[in-house]
TrEMBL record:
Textual note on the cofactor: Binds 1 [4Fe-4S] cluster.
Name the UniProt record assigns to this protein: Adenine DNA glycosylase
Function: Adenine glycosylase active on G-A mispairs. MutY also corrects error-prone DNA synthesis past GO lesions which are due to the oxidatively damaged form of guanine: 7,8-dihydro-8-oxoguanine (8-oxo-dGTP).
Database matches in Pfam families: EndIII_4Fe-2S, HHH, HhH-GPD, NUDIX_4
Organism: Ulvibacter antarcticus
Amino acid sequence: MWYLQHKRDLPWRNTKDPYRIWLSEIMLQQTRVAQGLPYYERFLKAFPTIKELATTSEDKILKLWQGLGYYSRARNLYATANYIWNERNGKFPSNYKELLTLKGVGDYTASAIASICYDEKQAVVDGNVYRVLSRVFGISTPINSTAGIKEFKSLAQLLIDGRQPGTYNQAIMEFGARHCTPQNPDCGSCIFSDRCIALKKDMVGQLPVKIKKLKIKKRYFNYIVILSEEGKTVLKQRTKKGIWQQLYEFPLVETEAEVDEIELKEIQTFNEVSEGYNIESLVLYNEASVVHKLSHQHLYTRFWIATLSEENQKNGNRIENEIPIARVRDYAVPVLIENFISDFSVFKI
């Protein structure tokens, strides 16, 4: 009853189309609904069916995904769309076990699609569900431990309503997102207040338990923003595995710590960039590093504006990876670089 009275009117709750449910679940992994909703709507406008998604380019998907983070989700989305369209004639798997074989689909996503689209009795367990179950049942097993993952999945599976599994799954996730919140939940008006063990034992703030993550790694990025008199710059695609794979960025010099201009010019990687593009002058754009926080690392970033030698430009030498400044916004870039592009006057065309 709580869910029927309090649920938000979200577009993926008005359909059982597995394509639309899959798209929403992939987008909402590690993403708040308020942030993910505009992306979901833009994707559906661009790719109303899996055919359009499978037959577009990965670059276009990454561009639309720009700013949503965790870009491996977008690459998996494209790979799975291609597989379903080309190998399964556009038909989604219709049960939990087969859904698990799709790239980028784990227990949570497979359970959500199977229960919502096919009424299969498969319980979802996400951050919201962990929080509700750990508090109501007073479970202190770490939710990111092997034992905890197994324990919470088993409990969720016992509790799920076999008659309306999809509705039940959405209800418990909604309750966790809107009522049993991480901070300052409204326990006084909670429908579980008479049976919540965490409330009775004054442990609401301590549950759920999560094993602390590894120490955050600090990295120091120096982006060399190349500008030519012909109105061109340079963007290179990150092809190696790691953060931002397949996205574009300015030539990068990574250092062990923050460096000044003299120190930067002593680094071999910078010299390779400088010689490759015949850089003549270099000016630091931001004295204070931009700190970009990812889940497992913090990036301390400076942007250096580089102009090319007159000889290079007079001779009309072609610059590798050069693009017109007017086309910079056509490329999928990390939000860190997108913010710089928006701020730097040269790119405001």
